[in-house]
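lol ok so funny story. i was supposed to be doing the assay writeup but got distracted and ended up predicting the structure for this chain instead. priorities right. anyway since i did it might as well share w the group, maybe its usefull for someone
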Amino acid sequence: MKRYSMPLLVGSLRRASIMVMSMESRAFGAYPTRTFLDPPAMGIGGKLFCVVMIAAVCVWYAALAFGLVHVVYVFAPR
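and the output, tada:
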């Protein structure tokens, strides 16, 4: 445990220091709102994909709940 704790601590402090310098050089937090060159927007394809994936997850869990798909068969190793 002692063997790994010191390198992990030093590495995390080094990464944090690099991140602080990067954030300060980009003036992170200088303005109350974030600035973008182009405002982020999701197109109709992205919204449709999100709706389809949420529906697929709901159908999957409903099939598991009603016993249409058995958990043992789905997650069993081959």
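Residues 40 and 59 are 30 Å apart (CA to CA). The chain is about 65% helix and 0% strand.
back to the writeup now i swear
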